[in-house]
Design goal:
With 460 residues, the protein is an alpha/beta fold. Helices cover 40% and strands 21% of the residues. It has a 7-stranded mixed β-sheet, with helices on both faces. It has a 5-stranded parallel β-sheet with strand order 7-6-5-8-9, sandwiched between helices. The chain is globular. It binds nicotinamide-adenine-dinucleotide. The site of nicotinamide-adenine-dinucleotide has 27 residues, from helix 7 and helix 8.
Length: 460
Protein backbone atom coordinates (compact mmCIF):
# COMPACT_ATOMS: atom_id res chain seq x y z
CA UNK A 1 0.00 0.00 0.00
CA UNK A 2 1.28 3.50 -0.84
CA UNK A 3 1.89 5.62 2.27
CA UNK A 4 -0.11 8.85 2.10
CA UNK A 5 1.82 12.11 2.37
CA UNK A 6 1.30 15.62 3.71
CA UNK A 7 2.70 18.92 2.43
CA UNK A 8 4.70 21.39 4.49
CA UNK A 9 4.09 25.00 3.46
CA UNK A 10 6.37 27.83 4.60
CA UNK A 11 4.59 30.39 6.82
CA UNK A 12 7.09 32.90 5.49
CA UNK A 13 6.64 32.49 1.74
CA UNK A 14 3.47 30.41 1.37
CA UNK A 15 5.50 28.03 -0.79
CA UNK A 16 5.57 24.28 -0.38
CA UNK A 17 8.79 23.10 1.30
CA UNK A 18 8.23 19.41 0.68
CA UNK A 19 6.01 16.34 1.02
CA UNK A 20 6.47 13.89 3.86
CA UNK A 21 5.02 10.48 4.68
CA UNK A 22 1.98 10.39 6.92
CA UNK A 23 3.19 7.33 8.78
CA UNK A 24 0.72 4.77 10.03
CA UNK A 25 0.63 2.62 13.15
CA UNK A 26 2.20 -0.25 11.23
CA UNK A 27 5.03 2.02 9.93
CA UNK A 28 5.63 2.95 13.56
CA UNK A 29 5.61 -0.68 14.68
CA UNK A 30 8.22 -1.64 12.09
CA UNK A 31 10.37 1.40 13.01
CA UNK A 32 10.27 0.31 16.66
CA UNK A 33 11.16 -3.28 15.69
CA UNK A 34 14.17 -2.02 13.67
CA UNK A 35 15.28 0.22 16.54
CA UNK A 36 14.98 -2.69 18.96
CA UNK A 37 17.22 -4.85 16.77
CA UNK A 38 19.83 -2.07 16.75
CA UNK A 39 19.59 -1.54 20.51
CA UNK A 40 21.84 -4.37 21.76
CA UNK A 41 24.81 -3.31 19.70
CA UNK A 42 24.39 0.38 20.54
CA UNK A 43 23.93 -0.38 24.25
CA UNK A 44 27.17 -2.36 24.33
CA UNK A 45 29.11 0.46 22.65
CA UNK A 46 31.35 2.17 25.22
CA UNK A 47 29.77 5.37 26.52
CA UNK A 48 32.99 7.18 25.58
CA UNK A 49 32.46 6.06 21.95
CA UNK A 50 28.88 7.25 22.00
CA UNK A 51 30.19 10.54 23.38
CA UNK A 52 32.69 10.78 20.53
CA UNK A 53 29.88 10.36 18.00
CA UNK A 54 27.84 13.06 19.73
CA UNK A 55 30.90 15.33 19.65
CA UNK A 56 31.25 14.59 15.92
CA UNK A 57 27.57 15.48 15.60
CA UNK A 58 28.22 18.84 17.29
CA UNK A 59 31.03 19.53 14.81
CA UNK A 60 28.85 18.52 11.85
CA UNK A 61 26.11 20.83 13.14
CA UNK A 62 28.65 23.66 13.30
CA UNK A 63 29.58 22.97 9.70
CA UNK A 64 25.94 23.04 8.57
CA UNK A 65 24.69 25.72 10.97
CA UNK A 66 23.95 28.34 8.31
CA UNK A 67 21.87 26.07 6.08
CA UNK A 68 20.07 24.56 9.08
CA UNK A 69 19.25 28.01 10.52
CA UNK A 70 18.08 29.18 7.09
CA UNK A 71 15.79 26.14 6.77
CA UNK A 72 14.36 26.71 10.27
CA UNK A 73 13.60 30.29 9.26
CA UNK A 74 11.74 29.17 6.14
CA UNK A 75 9.98 26.39 8.00
CA UNK A 76 8.85 28.36 11.08
CA UNK A 77 8.93 32.00 9.96
CA UNK A 78 11.15 33.05 12.86
CA UNK A 79 13.93 35.64 12.37
CA UNK A 80 17.26 34.27 11.19
CA UNK A 81 19.02 35.43 14.38
CA UNK A 82 16.61 33.36 16.46
CA UNK A 83 17.11 30.30 14.23
CA UNK A 84 20.87 30.67 14.60
CA UNK A 85 20.49 30.90 18.38
CA UNK A 86 18.51 27.69 18.40
CA UNK A 87 21.04 25.79 16.30
CA UNK A 88 23.78 27.16 18.60
CA UNK A 89 22.03 25.85 21.69
CA UNK A 90 21.68 22.39 20.12
CA UNK A 91 25.43 22.40 19.47
CA UNK A 92 26.07 23.38 23.12
CA UNK A 93 23.82 20.58 24.28
CA UNK A 94 25.73 18.06 22.15
CA UNK A 95 29.12 19.18 23.50
CA UNK A 96 27.90 19.15 27.09
CA UNK A 97 26.45 15.64 26.87
CA UNK A 98 29.35 14.27 24.81
CA UNK A 99 31.66 15.16 27.71
CA UNK A 100 29.47 13.00 29.92
CA UNK A 101 31.19 9.99 28.35
CA UNK A 102 34.26 10.88 30.45
CA UNK A 103 32.46 11.89 33.64
CA UNK A 104 32.18 9.70 36.72
CA UNK A 105 28.74 8.15 36.96
CA UNK A 106 27.02 5.79 39.38
CA UNK A 107 27.68 5.19 43.08
CA UNK A 108 28.97 2.61 45.49
CA UNK A 109 26.37 1.58 48.05
CA UNK A 110 27.21 0.45 51.59
CA UNK A 111 25.98 -3.04 52.51
CA UNK A 112 25.09 -4.83 55.76
CA UNK A 113 27.04 -7.86 54.54
CA UNK A 114 30.84 -7.82 54.90
CA UNK A 115 32.77 -7.92 51.64
CA UNK A 116 29.62 -7.31 49.55
CA UNK A 117 30.44 -4.57 47.10
CA UNK A 118 27.38 -2.99 45.52
CA UNK A 119 27.31 -0.48 42.75
CA UNK A 120 24.50 1.58 41.34
CA UNK A 121 24.79 2.22 37.62
CA UNK A 122 22.74 3.82 34.87
CA UNK A 123 21.68 1.51 32.04
CA UNK A 124 19.75 2.31 28.87
CA UNK A 125 16.06 1.50 28.61
CA UNK A 126 15.71 0.33 24.99
CA UNK A 127 13.82 2.15 22.24
CA UNK A 128 13.12 5.82 22.93
CA UNK A 129 10.04 7.28 21.21
CA UNK A 130 10.65 11.03 21.08
CA UNK A 131 7.55 13.08 20.18
CA UNK A 132 8.16 16.80 19.78
CA UNK A 133 6.55 20.09 18.83
CA UNK A 134 7.37 22.85 16.36
CA UNK A 135 8.07 26.04 18.31
CA UNK A 136 11.83 25.49 18.62
CA UNK A 137 12.35 22.49 16.37
CA UNK A 138 16.11 22.21 16.75
CA UNK A 139 16.43 22.52 20.55
CA UNK A 140 13.34 20.34 20.99
CA UNK A 141 15.10 17.70 18.90
CA UNK A 142 18.51 18.08 20.59
CA UNK A 143 17.09 18.17 24.13
CA UNK A 144 15.72 14.65 23.64
CA UNK A 145 17.94 12.97 21.06
CA UNK A 146 21.33 13.66 22.64
CA UNK A 147 20.52 12.40 26.16
CA UNK A 148 18.59 9.43 24.75
CA UNK A 149 21.55 8.36 22.60
CA UNK A 150 24.22 9.14 25.22
CA UNK A 151 22.33 6.99 27.71
CA UNK A 152 22.54 4.11 25.21
CA UNK A 153 19.00 3.99 23.84
CA UNK A 154 18.13 3.81 20.18
CA UNK A 155 15.75 6.58 19.20
CA UNK A 156 12.91 7.41 16.84
CA UNK A 157 11.91 11.06 16.59
CA UNK A 158 8.37 12.00 15.60
CA UNK A 159 8.61 15.71 14.81
CA UNK A 160 5.62 18.00 14.55
CA UNK A 161 3.98 17.92 11.10
CA UNK A 162 4.73 21.67 11.12
CA UNK A 163 8.51 21.07 11.13
CA UNK A 164 9.38 17.93 9.15
CA UNK A 165 12.08 19.56 7.02
CA UNK A 166 14.41 20.68 9.81
CA UNK A 167 14.01 17.29 11.54
CA UNK A 168 14.99 15.58 8.30
CA UNK A 169 18.06 17.80 7.90
CA UNK A 170 19.06 17.47 11.56
CA UNK A 171 18.95 13.68 11.50
CA UNK A 172 20.81 13.66 8.16
CA UNK A 173 23.61 15.71 9.73
CA UNK A 174 23.82 13.26 12.63
CA UNK A 175 24.01 10.30 10.24
CA UNK A 176 26.74 12.11 8.31
CA UNK A 177 28.59 12.47 11.64
CA UNK A 178 28.52 8.70 12.10
CA UNK A 179 25.40 8.05 14.20
CA UNK A 180 24.12 4.78 12.67
CA UNK A 181 20.88 5.03 10.71
CA UNK A 182 19.22 2.24 12.67
CA UNK A 183 20.16 3.94 15.96
CA UNK A 184 18.38 7.19 15.13
CA UNK A 185 15.63 7.80 12.64
CA UNK A 186 12.76 10.15 11.96
CA UNK A 187 9.17 9.05 11.59
CA UNK A 188 6.98 11.71 10.01
CA UNK A 189 3.28 12.12 10.51
CA UNK A 190 0.76 13.04 13.17
CA UNK A 191 -0.81 11.44 16.21
CA UNK A 192 -1.21 8.01 14.62
CA UNK A 193 2.55 7.59 14.12
CA UNK A 194 3.20 8.75 17.69
CA UNK A 195 0.59 6.46 19.21
CA UNK A 196 1.94 3.61 17.06
CA UNK A 197 5.41 4.02 18.59
CA UNK A 198 3.95 3.87 22.10
CA UNK A 199 1.70 0.88 21.39
CA UNK A 200 4.61 -0.99 19.82
CA UNK A 201 6.21 -1.03 23.26
CA UNK A 202 8.90 1.66 23.13
CA UNK A 203 10.54 1.44 26.54
CA UNK A 204 10.87 5.21 26.88
CA UNK A 205 8.30 7.75 25.72
CA UNK A 206 9.43 11.36 25.81
CA UNK A 207 6.90 13.98 24.78
CA UNK A 208 6.96 17.77 24.42
CA UNK A 209 3.70 19.42 23.48
CA UNK A 210 0.31 20.50 24.79
CA UNK A 211 -1.34 19.36 28.01
CA UNK A 212 -4.26 17.72 26.19
CA UNK A 213 -2.01 15.57 23.99
CA UNK A 214 0.45 14.95 26.83
CA UNK A 215 -2.31 13.51 28.99
CA UNK A 216 -3.24 11.11 26.15
CA UNK A 217 0.42 10.13 25.74
CA UNK A 218 0.69 9.40 29.47
CA UNK A 219 -2.44 7.24 29.28
CA UNK A 220 -1.21 5.27 26.28
CA UNK A 221 2.22 4.77 27.87
CA UNK A 222 0.61 3.58 31.11
CA UNK A 223 -0.66 0.50 29.25
CA UNK A 224 2.85 -0.63 28.33
CA UNK A 225 4.41 0.77 31.55
CA UNK A 226 6.95 2.73 29.50
CA UNK A 227 9.05 5.28 31.35
CA UNK A 228 7.75 8.73 30.45
CA UNK A 229 9.18 12.22 30.15
CA UNK A 230 6.25 14.62 29.67
CA UNK A 231 7.02 18.32 29.08
CA UNK A 232 3.95 20.50 28.56
CA UNK A 233 2.74 24.07 28.37
CA UNK A 234 2.88 27.12 30.58
CA UNK A 235 1.00 30.31 31.37
CA UNK A 236 3.93 31.91 33.05
CA UNK A 237 3.77 34.85 35.47
CA UNK A 238 6.25 37.69 35.59
CA UNK A 239 5.62 39.55 38.86
CA UNK A 240 6.76 43.17 39.16
CA UNK A 241 6.95 44.92 42.54
CA UNK A 242 6.91 48.72 42.84
CA UNK A 243 10.59 48.78 43.89
CA UNK A 244 11.74 46.94 40.74
CA UNK A 245 13.95 48.44 38.04
CA UNK A 246 10.81 49.28 36.05
CA UNK A 247 12.22 50.03 32.62
CA UNK A 248 14.36 46.88 32.65
CA UNK A 249 11.39 44.82 33.88
CA UNK A 250 9.23 46.15 31.02
CA UNK A 251 11.87 45.44 28.36
CA UNK A 252 12.37 41.93 29.72
CA UNK A 253 8.61 41.28 29.95
CA UNK A 254 8.21 42.46 26.33
CA UNK A 255 10.94 40.10 25.19
CA UNK A 256 9.56 37.18 27.21
CA UNK A 257 6.00 37.71 25.97
CA UNK A 258 6.57 38.53 22.29
CA UNK A 259 9.78 36.87 21.09
CA UNK A 260 9.28 33.75 18.96
CA UNK A 261 5.87 35.35 18.27
CA UNK A 262 4.81 34.18 21.72
CA UNK A 263 5.09 30.53 20.65
CA UNK A 264 7.05 29.61 23.73
CA UNK A 265 6.20 27.27 26.57
CA UNK A 266 8.12 29.72 28.78
CA UNK A 267 6.63 32.98 27.51
CA UNK A 268 5.55 35.66 30.00
CA UNK A 269 1.93 35.70 28.95
CA UNK A 270 0.71 36.94 32.36
CA UNK A 271 2.43 39.99 33.83
CA UNK A 272 1.41 40.87 37.38
CA UNK A 273 2.29 44.39 38.49
CA UNK A 274 1.97 46.19 41.83
CA UNK A 275 -0.84 48.76 41.47
CA UNK A 276 1.37 51.73 42.46
CA UNK A 277 3.45 51.33 39.28
CA UNK A 278 0.91 49.72 36.94
CA UNK A 279 0.39 52.77 34.69
CA UNK A 280 4.10 53.56 34.58
CA UNK A 281 4.85 49.92 33.72
CA UNK A 282 2.31 49.92 30.87
CA UNK A 283 3.93 53.09 29.52
CA UNK A 284 7.33 51.39 29.59
CA UNK A 285 5.93 48.31 27.81
CA UNK A 286 4.41 50.58 25.15
CA UNK A 287 7.76 52.33 24.73
CA UNK A 288 9.64 49.04 24.28
CA UNK A 289 6.99 47.46 21.99
CA UNK A 290 5.82 50.19 19.66
CA UNK A 291 8.92 50.14 17.46
CA UNK A 292 8.98 46.35 16.99
CA UNK A 293 9.19 45.20 13.38
CA UNK A 294 6.86 42.26 12.85
CA UNK A 295 6.44 40.08 9.79
CA UNK A 296 8.20 38.21 7.03
CA UNK A 297 10.91 40.70 6.03
CA UNK A 298 14.58 40.04 6.81
CA UNK A 299 14.70 42.90 9.30
CA UNK A 300 11.64 41.74 11.26
CA UNK A 301 12.38 41.20 14.95
CA UNK A 302 9.27 39.09 15.42
CA UNK A 303 8.38 36.57 12.76
CA UNK A 304 5.26 34.67 11.85
CA UNK A 305 3.11 32.19 13.68
CA UNK A 306 3.50 28.63 12.44
CA UNK A 307 0.54 28.81 10.06
CA UNK A 308 -2.53 30.83 9.09
CA UNK A 309 -4.82 28.76 11.32
CA UNK A 310 -2.71 29.63 14.37
CA UNK A 311 -2.80 33.34 13.49
CA UNK A 312 -6.60 33.19 13.08
CA UNK A 313 -6.96 31.36 16.40
CA UNK A 314 -4.84 34.07 18.04
CA UNK A 315 -7.04 36.84 16.60
CA UNK A 316 -10.09 34.88 17.79
CA UNK A 317 -8.66 34.79 21.31
CA UNK A 318 -8.16 38.58 21.28
CA UNK A 319 -11.70 39.12 19.97
CA UNK A 320 -13.02 37.01 22.87
CA UNK A 321 -10.99 39.11 25.31
CA UNK A 322 -12.63 42.26 23.92
CA UNK A 323 -16.05 40.64 24.14
CA UNK A 324 -15.31 39.92 27.81
CA UNK A 325 -14.71 43.65 28.36
CA UNK A 326 -10.92 43.71 28.16
CA UNK A 327 -8.84 46.35 26.35
CA UNK A 328 -6.55 45.01 23.64
CA UNK A 329 -3.69 47.24 22.42
CA UNK A 330 -1.59 46.16 19.47
CA UNK A 331 2.04 47.17 18.96
CA UNK A 332 4.68 47.09 16.26
CA UNK A 333 4.98 47.80 12.55
CA UNK A 334 4.13 45.23 9.91
CA UNK A 335 7.08 44.31 7.71
CA UNK A 336 6.00 41.96 4.97
CA UNK A 337 2.42 40.81 5.33
CA UNK A 338 1.13 37.24 5.31
CA UNK A 339 -1.89 35.55 6.85
CA UNK A 340 0.54 34.03 9.37
CA UNK A 341 1.57 37.36 10.93
CA UNK A 342 0.07 38.75 14.16
CA UNK A 343 1.00 42.02 15.82
CA UNK A 344 1.87 41.69 19.54
CA UNK A 345 -0.96 42.52 21.93
CA UNK A 346 -1.18 43.82 25.48
CA UNK A 347 -4.46 42.92 27.17
CA UNK A 348 -5.74 44.69 30.29
CA UNK A 349 -9.01 44.42 32.17
CA UNK A 350 -9.41 40.63 31.95
CA UNK A 351 -10.51 38.55 34.91
CA UNK A 352 -7.22 36.82 35.88
CA UNK A 353 -9.10 33.78 37.23
CA UNK A 354 -11.14 33.24 34.05
CA UNK A 355 -10.22 30.75 31.37
CA UNK A 356 -9.30 33.61 28.99
CA UNK A 357 -7.21 35.23 31.69
CA UNK A 358 -5.27 32.19 32.84
CA UNK A 359 -4.94 29.70 29.97
CA UNK A 360 -1.90 29.18 27.76
CA UNK A 361 -1.96 31.27 24.57
CA UNK A 362 0.53 30.30 21.89
CA UNK A 363 0.85 33.77 20.36
CA UNK A 364 2.36 37.22 21.11
CA UNK A 365 0.25 38.34 24.05
CA UNK A 366 0.93 39.94 27.42
CA UNK A 367 -2.06 39.93 29.79
CA UNK A 368 -1.39 42.50 32.52
CA UNK A 369 -2.96 42.39 35.99
CA UNK A 370 -2.55 44.73 38.96
CA UNK A 371 -2.14 43.66 42.59
CA UNK A 372 -2.17 45.34 46.01
CA UNK A 373 -0.44 43.18 48.60
CA UNK A 374 2.41 40.71 48.22
CA UNK A 375 0.01 37.86 49.02
CA UNK A 376 -2.31 38.99 46.21
CA UNK A 377 0.62 39.06 43.79
CA UNK A 378 1.55 35.50 44.74
CA UNK A 379 -2.06 34.32 44.42
CA UNK A 380 -2.29 35.79 40.92
CA UNK A 381 1.05 34.24 39.94
CA UNK A 382 -0.33 30.82 40.88
CA UNK A 383 -3.77 31.43 39.31
CA UNK A 384 -3.22 28.94 36.48
CA UNK A 385 -3.36 25.20 35.92
CA UNK A 386 0.29 25.36 34.83
CA UNK A 387 3.60 25.68 36.70
CA UNK A 388 6.41 25.84 34.17
CA UNK A 389 8.39 29.07 34.66
CA UNK A 390 8.05 32.38 36.51
CA UNK A 391 9.96 35.60 37.17
CA UNK A 392 9.95 37.98 40.13
CA UNK A 393 11.15 41.58 39.85
CA UNK A 394 12.10 43.49 43.01
CA UNK A 395 15.12 45.30 44.37
CA UNK A 396 14.33 43.76 47.77
CA UNK A 397 16.10 40.42 47.45
CA UNK A 398 14.66 39.09 50.71
CA UNK A 399 11.15 39.69 49.44
CA UNK A 400 12.00 38.25 46.04
CA UNK A 401 13.26 35.02 47.64
CA UNK A 402 10.16 34.87 49.88
CA UNK A 403 7.91 35.18 46.83
CA UNK A 404 9.93 32.57 44.92
CA UNK A 405 9.37 30.13 47.79
CA UNK A 406 5.58 30.47 47.28
CA UNK A 407 5.35 30.25 43.48
CA UNK A 408 4.60 26.88 41.95
CA UNK A 409 6.96 26.53 38.97
CA UNK A 410 9.86 24.37 37.81
CA UNK A 411 12.06 27.32 36.79
CA UNK A 412 12.06 30.77 38.47
CA UNK A 413 14.23 33.81 37.72
CA UNK A 414 14.71 36.82 39.99
CA UNK A 415 15.06 40.06 37.99
CA UNK A 416 15.19 38.07 34.76
CA UNK A 417 12.93 36.75 31.99
CA UNK A 418 10.55 33.79 32.16
CA UNK A 419 12.43 32.15 29.28
CA UNK A 420 16.12 31.60 28.55
CA UNK A 421 16.97 28.05 29.66
CA UNK A 422 20.61 27.02 29.37
CA UNK A 423 21.66 23.54 28.31
CA UNK A 424 22.98 22.56 31.74
CA UNK A 425 19.81 23.67 33.56
CA UNK A 426 17.22 20.91 34.00
CA UNK A 427 13.99 22.16 32.41
CA UNK A 428 10.44 21.17 33.28
CA UNK A 429 7.46 22.14 35.36
CA UNK A 430 4.89 21.21 37.97
CA UNK A 431 1.06 20.99 37.91
CA UNK A 432 -0.16 20.58 34.31
CA UNK A 433 3.24 21.55 32.89
CA UNK A 434 4.72 18.08 33.14
CA UNK A 435 5.08 14.84 35.04
CA UNK A 436 8.10 15.80 37.12
CA UNK A 437 10.74 14.58 34.70
CA UNK A 438 13.32 17.01 33.33
CA UNK A 439 14.84 17.59 29.90
CA UNK A 440 18.35 19.10 29.66
CA UNK A 441 21.00 19.30 32.35
CA UNK A 442 22.89 16.20 33.44
CA UNK A 443 19.56 15.21 35.02
CA UNK A 444 18.46 14.30 31.49
CA UNK A 445 20.77 11.28 31.57
CA UNK A 446 18.84 10.02 34.60
CA UNK A 447 15.53 10.71 32.86
CA UNK A 448 16.60 8.77 29.76
CA UNK A 449 18.07 5.75 31.56
CA UNK A 450 17.27 3.21 34.23
CA UNK A 451 18.96 2.44 37.51
CA UNK A 452 20.62 -0.94 38.00
CA UNK A 453 22.07 -2.28 41.25
CA UNK A 454 24.88 -4.84 40.89
CA UNK A 455 26.49 -6.63 43.85
CA UNK A 456 29.68 -8.64 44.01
CA UNK A 457 30.08 -10.99 47.02
CA UNK A 458 33.84 -11.02 47.59
CA UNK A 459 33.46 -13.10 50.76
CA UNK A 460 32.46 -16.28 48.89
P1 LIG B 1 0.57 19.12 20.33
O1 LIG B 1 0.31 18.44 21.63
O2 LIG B 1 -0.56 19.41 19.44
O3 LIG B 1 1.60 18.24 19.44
C1 LIG B 1 2.84 17.80 19.93
C2 LIG B 1 3.24 16.51 19.23
O4 LIG B 1 2.32 15.48 19.56
C3 LIG B 1 3.27 16.60 17.70
O5 LIG B 1 4.39 15.91 17.22
C4 LIG B 1 1.98 15.89 17.31
O6 LIG B 1 2.01 15.36 16.01
C5 LIG B 1 1.92 14.80 18.35
N1 LIG B 1 0.59 14.21 18.58
C6 LIG B 1 -0.61 14.65 18.14
N2 LIG B 1 -1.60 13.82 18.58
C7 LIG B 1 -0.99 12.87 19.33
C8 LIG B 1 -1.47 11.75 20.05
N3 LIG B 1 -2.78 11.44 20.12
N4 LIG B 1 -0.58 10.99 20.72
C9 LIG B 1 0.74 11.28 20.69
N5 LIG B 1 1.25 12.34 20.01
C10 LIG B 1 0.39 13.12 19.34
O7 LIG B 1 1.37 20.42 20.71
P2 LIG B 1 1.79 21.64 19.75
O8 LIG B 1 0.64 22.50 19.50
O9 LIG B 1 2.58 21.11 18.62
O10 LIG B 1 2.84 22.38 20.71
C11 LIG B 1 2.55 23.45 21.54
C12 LIG B 1 2.64 23.01 22.98
O11 LIG B 1 3.93 22.54 23.32
C13 LIG B 1 2.38 24.20 23.92
O12 LIG B 1 1.50 23.79 24.95
C14 LIG B 1 3.78 24.48 24.47
O13 LIG B 1 3.78 25.13 25.72
C15 LIG B 1 4.34 23.10 24.55
N6 LIG B 1 5.81 23.12 24.69
C16 LIG B 1 6.38 22.69 25.86
C17 LIG B 1 7.75 22.73 26.04
C18 LIG B 1 8.40 22.24 27.32
O14 LIG B 1 9.60 21.98 27.32
N7 LIG B 1 7.68 22.10 28.41
C19 LIG B 1 8.56 23.21 25.01
C20 LIG B 1 7.96 23.64 23.83
C21 LIG B 1 6.58 23.60 23.68
Amino acid sequence: MVTPTFDKVSPLTGQKLGSYPLSTRSDAASAVADARRAFWLWKSTAIESRGRLIRNAAQALEKHRDELAELVRRETGKPLGDSHGEVGSAIEMAYMLAAHGRFPSGNLLPSAIPLRQTRLQRVPLGVAALIITYNAPIPNFAWKVFPALMAGNTAIVKPSPHTPASAEMFVGILHEAGVPEDVLRVLHGGGEAAVGMIEAGSELVSFTGSYSTGAKVAQAAAKTLAKTVIELGGSNPLVVFADAALAAAAVTATESAFSNAGQRCASASRVIVENDVLDAFLDEVAASSQGLLVGTSDDAQIGTLIDGASARAFEGFLAECEKAGATVTRFGHLRGVADTVALPAVVTGLDPWSDLGSKEVFGPVMRVYGFGTEEQGIELANATEFGLTAAVWSSDIVRAERVVSKIHAGVININGPTHGAEVNFPFGGVKNSGNGSRDAGVQAIDAYSDVQVVSNFFGV
